[in-house]
Amino acid sequence: MSQISVNNLTFYYDGSYDNIFEDVSFRIDTDWKLGFIARNGRGKTTFLNLLMGKYEYLGKITASVEFDYFPFYVSDKEKDTLSVIEEINPEYEFWKICRELTLLQVDADVLYRPFHTLSNGEQTKVMLALLFSGENRFLLIDEPTNHLDMEAREMVSDYLKRKKGFLLVSHDRAFLDKCIDHVLTINKTNIEVQQGNFSSWEENKRRQDEYELAENERLKKEIRKLEASARQAGQWADNVEATKIGRKSEKYETGIDLRAYIGEKSRRMQMRRKNLERRQNRAIDEKSALLKNIERAEDLKLFPLRHHKDILVKMEGISMQYPMRQAGGEKGKQILKEFGMEIRNGDRVVLQGRNGCGKSSVMKAVLSAAWGGTDVGGPAVTGTLETAAGLKVSYVPQDTGHLCGSLEDYAAEYGIDETLFKALLRKLDFSRIQFDKRMEEYSGGQKKKVLIARSLCEQAHLYVWDEPLNFIDVFSRMQIENLIMKYQPTVFMVEHDKSFVKKIGTVFIDLESF
């Protein structure tokens, strides 16, 4: 076992308004299973890049191991998977890759297929197999669960549970609980390390926040009492001081002993005033040291519409098939057969199933029907698909690549209130500085928050969200949970965060049964 030591780390991007890290120091052991938690934009990926030596910084980072970063960059996805692996690490050992793939329950045949033909889950598992096939490495794993279905997440968490020596960035609470034994957190004012999984960290944070809030209230009351006492003591001291000179002193001037008594009384009253002021200032200092790291997850607002019809979407005998391939006229792949479902007012429908089973295709079919047959890029659909007349839908897609330009232009494009839009982003932990940036400069989580905030600004009968939580931090996930539970909108969703869907879902549909 060895340690990674971070001492007095300070870092900022050229042209940025403030430091990302300022005089940060901590140590971690290289055999820990370390979860990495922070709000979006706090510097998780930046810190991983600092460990990799990609940026210059002030301070010192020392380690006796090398670092490897996941996900690996793949320059040509048309190559077969084994060639991709060789390009990333020419010194790989084939038998070790096969060993890790076996642990991940992936057939070694995937190594001979073009990389782009692998599913998201298969690509992730192949890259993890390559990552863990090395030795004397501390592994930096950046959000491996994005685009993984629930079953794949279970598989990967079981795999990581058997490993050690990694720093894992993930916002999936159930996933973190299963495979980490320490937590590294970027707070508002510091970075801290503690033993345990996500649940134990969350409980410790809740207790610390409750203690600080209670202590803050106690100190506020103490400060008010000290202020009142200091004012009274000051008034008494001034009254006594006034008897030493002027007209009030005339009755004491005939007696030297009496004047000495008055002087001593004045001195003591002034000392009492100063002691009260010192206690007051100490209480103010103690109070100012509290609440700095409390994450204020403010309540979000939603303005759902209620449709006069109970059934908003009805699907019967639905079959889906992609068109015939261009080469050779081969019949396209059938996704679903004889599928049916209903979405009623107030339902929170969660589509489940492995990647590739047709979840996004079902969503696109509903969107196309609701938008009057608009082509949204889905497969050919046969069967009965009916949507309520005048149904208003708000859609959050998986992809954020289309986001560019300013927030002001984006709000104008969608016809939403800019002030409300930015207020929601503020509640999702956007700083005002972010409002001046172009959306291309945002992190993945910040881009997803833009999509969600825009959707929350839209009045709709049905909210269609396709994997809305990819890249979204834990605190914001809990805010969105609370929002849905409070306003009870009608939601049609694909999401693989087990903790999230367990709390908000009312109807669960497994597409693999069709």
Task: Please give a structural write-up.
By secondary structure, the protein is of the alpha/beta class. It is built from 14 helices and 17 strands. It has helices spanning 44-51, 81-88, 94-103, 120-132, 150-161, 173-179, 198-242, 256-288, 359-370, 407-414, 418-427, 444-457, 474-487, 498-504, and strands spanning 3-11, 21-29, 33-37, 58-63, 66-70, 137-142, 166-169, 182-186, 191-195, 311-321, 334-344, 348-352, 380-387, 393-396, 462-466, 491-494, 507-510. 39% of the residues lie in helices and 21% in strands.
Instruction: Name the strands of the widest sheet in spatial order.
Output: 5-6-7-3-8-9
Task: Estimate the mean pLDDT confidence.
Answer: 87
Number of strands: 17
Q: Helical percent range?
A: 25-40%
Low-confidence stretches: 325-330
Q: Which sheet architecture does the biggest sheet show?
A: 6 strands, mixed
Cα distance, first to last residue? 50 Å
> What is the structural class?
alpha/beta
